[in-house]
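Researcher: Here's the sequence for the chain we discussed earlier.
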Amino acid sequence: MKSIKRNLNWAAKILSLLILLQSCTVYHNYTSSIDEAIATNNKIKTDVPNEDSYKFIKLVRLENEIYGVAKKKSQVSKKLNAQIVDSQYEGKYNLIKLNEADLQNIHLKNKGASTALTIAIPVVILGVIAIIGGEAWDNALD
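Model: Thanks. This is the structure I predict for it:
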């Protein structure tokens, strides 16, 4: 009974790790222009001078102004609360007005690396678990 509990404990920890890895996003090292970021319509990270980086779901241009789209309860929405223009953008996001001067270092989402991270690492981990579990099962039968 103790070995079952121990194995279930390990399985729970590994499954938790796999779930956490599913939400990882990798960004390119090189910087992009505002127009490229708007055209990709994908996640972006921007480095603001003297502050932390901000991560947005996407950038949009409305009436010649640049806006970042962020989840309502995200760290970005909390930090830039004073700049929120629309708290019901597309029904569930905040629309945050941004200064073009603050958008100097824009990093686009690296789709290939993000996909590899969320698929390859869990597959490797599950493979290792299967090998260890198979060996443990063989030893239990002997």
